[in-house]
Write a structure and sequence with these properties.
Blueprint: H1 4-10, E1 12-14, E2 20-22, E3 28-30, E4 38-39, E5 51-53, E6 56-60, E7 63-64, E8 66-71, E9 85-90, H2 104-107, E10 120-121, H3 124-134, E11 138-141, H4 150-162, E12 166-171, H5 177-183, E13 189-193, H6 199-205, H7 209-222, E14 225-232, H8 240-253, E15 259-263, H9 278-291, E16 296-299, E17 311-312, E18 319-324, E19 327-331, H10 366-370
Parallel strand pairs: 9-11, 11-12, 12-13, 13-14, 14-15, 15-16
Antiparallel strand pairs: 1-6, 2-3, 3-4, 5-6, 7-10, 8-9, 17-18, 18-19
Helix pairs in contact: 3-4, 8-9
Length: 377
């Protein structure tokens, strides 16, 4: 049986011109993520899936490592098409190596022999057709780090846009100006994981803080709908001072950016800290409110955080969208995306009305269940 590395190298295409630069002595510079790797001939970048062959940069193509239908609230997007079904796909690999990764079977597949998610051959048109058949209104690149597989995502997004679907990215945000400009015309919604506000912590995860902060600034400036998530980990990123600086940064970009502070549970290699409690989340929310954020959500503990799963008008506190976990329990926004009581405009990407919710839980699409997919490995 061929090694996974060899399978992935045979399922690749030359990287987009916008994301590569030829250098001296056969090196190439890759701009798909914030590492901006300078890669010698015959070697891979930090992500392990983009590689230099003969002085040419190659990127993953033609497969999926996972496909799932999710409520858009799982991504999480709370201010973008509430109740919509998000057809979610991913490839393999990541430019970070977080010890607590909940998608490690795909993100760490190249680094960790325990991570087994067999790649399956796929075509953009087949994925989009399946998304439509499932009733999805959004196609989302997720599960691995989508920045390092941007070319494949854009190919699918072009097909999806042509069929009337919206598109989303669920990312660690470790981008570059080049990759965000490349993605910009094809991405409607973008979620950034702001994992910490401490550069030392980011280096423990394999990255740096500043590229993520610059991505947040750039995405907002580009007009792409942005929501930010922080997984609150006791003893790692949950000090009052760090949360104060993190939320003040978001306010400096825009107080209207929705901030999701979500509960950690022991996973993958991180089994030392205790799980996050409802009180931990509520404390973080209060810090964010004091900083000036207008839309803050506490996640992963449905029914245990009071009103903090719901969207309320920041002007008059009218309930606008009620939630329990991924379930929409109430929807009161006007067709123009305004509060029905005070007519305040609520930032987001809303529809003329609530179109119902096909599912409030993730499931495998029929394409993944029933079709005889070709496993590449």
């Amino acid at each position: 049986m061929p090694a996974l590395k060899d399978i992935l190298e045979s399922n690749a295409r030359e990287a987009a011109p916008e994301l590569r630069e030829k250098m001296e002595r056969g090196f190439v510079r890759c701009y798909a993520c914030g590492h901006a790797c300078r890669i010698p001939d015959g070697q891979v970048g930090v992500c392990k899936v983009r590689f230099n062959r003969g002085g040419r940069l190659f990127a993953p193509w033609g497969y999926v490592g996972g496909v799932q239908c999710d409520p858009i609230e799982k991504k999480p997007f709370f201010h973008a098409l509430p109740g919509a079904l998000a057809y979610s796909f991913g490839m393999l690999g990541c430019d970070l190596h977080c010890a607590y990764c909940q998608n490690w079977v795909t993100s760490q597949a190249i680094r960790d022999p325990r991570a087994v998610s067999p790649p399956l051959a796929a075509k953009p048109e087949d994925l989009v057709q399946d998304a439509l058949a499932e009733g999805a209104r959004v196609v989302v690149s997720t599960y691995n780090e989508p920045l390092i597989t941007s070319e494949w995502a854009v190919a699918i997004f072009k097909e999806a846009r042509g069929r009337g679907l919206k598109t989303g990215f669920v990312s660690n945000g470790n981008g570059t100006r080049q990759v965000l400009e490349y993605l910009g015309p094809w991405v409607d919604f973008y979620k950034v994981d702001l994992k910490s506000f401490n550069d030392r912590h980011y280096r423990q995860l394999g990255g740096r803080l500043e590229p993520i902060l610059e991505s947040v600034r750039t995405l907002h400036r580009m007009g792409i709908w942005l929501e930010v998530v922080t997984l609150l980990i006791p003893g790692f990123n949950d000090s009052d001072d760090e949360l104060k600086r993190l939320t003040e940064f978001l306010v400096s970009v825009s107080p209207d950016i929705p901030w999701h502070v979500t509960a950690f549970h022991q996973d993958y290699k991180m089994t030392e800290p205790r799980d996050t409690s409802p009180d931990d989340l509520i404390r973080a929310v209060e810090i964010g409110r004091h900083a000036g954020l207008r839309f803050i959500y506490a996640g992963n503990l449905p029914g245990r955080v009071g009103d903090l799963e719901n969207t309320r008008c920041p002007n008059c506190q009218e309930l606008l969208v009620g939630r329990y976990g991924y379930l929409i329990t109430d929807y009161r926004l006007t067709a123009e995306g305004r509060c029905p009581r005070c007519q305040a405009s609520i930032p987001g990407r809303w529809e003329a009305g609530f179109r119902g919710q096909l599912n409030d839980y993730p499931y495998l699409p029929r394409w993944r269940q029933a079709r005889d997919l070709v496993a590449l490995w």
